[in-house]
Amino acid sequence: MPSGTIEIDSELCKDCQLCISVCPHRLIVTSDRLNQKGYRFAQFTEKTLKKESKKCTGCALCAIVCPEIAIEVYRG
Ligand code: SF4
Ligand code: SF4
Predict the structure, then answer these.
(1) Whose CA is nearest to atom 4 of ligand 2?
(2) Which stretches of the chain are assigned E, i.e. beta strand?
(3) Residue among 51, 56, 72, 75 to mutate when testing ligand 1 (max atoms within 8 A of CB)
(4) Bridging pattern class, strands 71-75 and 4-8
(5) Of all atoms in ligand 1, which is nearest to the CA of residue 26?
(6) Which residue has its alpha carbon closest to ligand 2 atom 8?
(7) How do residues 60-71 score in pLDDT, each as one tens digit?
(8) What is the CATH number of domain 4-75?
(9) Confidence band (pLDDT; 50, 70, 90) for 47?
């Protein structure tokens, strides 16, 4: 199984939740906090979930769908 990780630029996020809906492993959630523009930004949760079955594969679906280009994907 390929592995990857992502970084979300919270200040670019506009809370459209598209990344949340496409992640096959449900690794992205909406934060309780707000960014400078007042949006509840998307947050990567792999480290907090710590479940073997819930690992980022670097599929990049989240980054492709993000209209704000707020997500960087790292593979390997
Ligand atoms: S790269 Fe794929 S598996 Fe990883 S967070 Fe994005 S949609 Fe989910
Ligand atoms: S797709 Fe982009 S703008 Fe939309 S919630 Fe995810 S990170 Fe934010």
Answers:
(1) 16
(2) 4-8, 28-34, 40-44, 71-75
(3) 56
(4) antiparallel
(5) 8
(6) 13
(7) 999 999 999 999
(8) 3.30.70.20
(9) confident
- Distance (Å) from CA 46 to ligand 1 centroid: 10
**Residue 32 CA to chain centroid, in angstroms?**
15
Instruction: For 15, list phi and psi in degrees, rounded to 5.
Output: 60, 35
Ligand nearest to the CA of 47: 1
Domain locations in the chain as residue ranges: 4-75
Query: Which pLDDT score, from 0 to 100, does residue 73 have?
Result: 98
Q: What b-and-e string marks burial along 19-47, b requiring 16 or more CB atoms within 10 Å of the CB?
A: bbeebeeebbbebeeebeeebbbbbbbbe
